Amino acid sequence: NAGVTQTPKFQVLKTGQSMTLQCAQDMNHNSMYWYRQDPGMGLRLIYYSASEGTTDKGEVPNGYNVSRLNKREFSLRLESAAPSQTSVYFCASSDSWGGQVDSGANVLTFGAGSRLTVL
Amino acid sequence: AQRVTQPEKLLSVFKGAPVELKCNYSYSGSPELFWYVQYSRQRLQLLLRHISRESIKGFTADLNKGETSFHLKKPFAQEEDSAMYYCALSGGAGNMLTFGGGTRLMVKP
Prior knowledge:
The structure holds two protein chains of two kinds. Chain A is mostly beta strands.
């Protein structure tokens, strides 16, 4: 099993360009997430999809949009890239979302990351 | 609001020395706490969760509700423990996982 696959691994953009980060999971997970990782700030949630057909904003959604295309795929789009969006982006999935303690809700499986540089 | 603080960005120890990575949290209810780890060139992965009360790779972490802490400990550090460690919290149903800023552990030979 591949787990969580995200593409591309690296991307360089100019300010104002658009791009889409793709993510797919093959574990039949219900919930999917996009995080960004910045030095000293840990991982911050951009958007999440609790289940197929739903998406919600996380902590830092501005400048991003998402699409839960089907149960497997969850894409992140930057419509007009800015230098502040230079970061490493991680897609993750989990069996469920925000469930009871001792459920699988918060056990996340992560992708390998996508390093994005905006010039 | 829930918050996770890892006060040390970098922790450097010698092989065989004890290790403690600090994690403090802010949450008014009963949280679920986790430690995630990212080894060099590997994916971020779950190391342990407080609910399991188990030792993984020699690491343990005890939830101290009085001090609102979930420090990660290992009595004898190994070079292969060198990695980025993230503490994370969930407030349970309807709550997202919130990560701390991370601590880079370097174990020197």
